[in-house]
Design goal:
This protein is an alpha+beta fold and 98 residues long. It contains four helices and four strands; from the N terminus they run E-H-E-H-E-H-E-H. The model has no long low-confidence stretch (mean pLDDT 88).
Length: 98
Amino acid sequence: MDIRCDATIQVSLSPREEKLAIAQGLMDVSLIGDGDPSSPDTDKLWRLCGRSHMSLADLVIGVKVSADSDRLGLLGWLQEEVKSQCAIVKESLNQGCS
């Protein structure tokens, strides 16, 4: 039996967080993937959602991802990457408030 998972990964920012992220230039910085086709992260993103990188702005809008049964592990990888990168962004936003 083939399994297919389609999902949207979306990050929510408070108005204050979004304002700070824009002011600090964090919205368009690549969080995941660097656009280099030989990069493992870029390869994984291409296979999941046809992108070479993801920025905070992309994640606020929402990114659609799809995986067949042989790529379901990539969804877990992406979820962990998003969590990790958003934690870094949150820390940067909090430092910007100090």
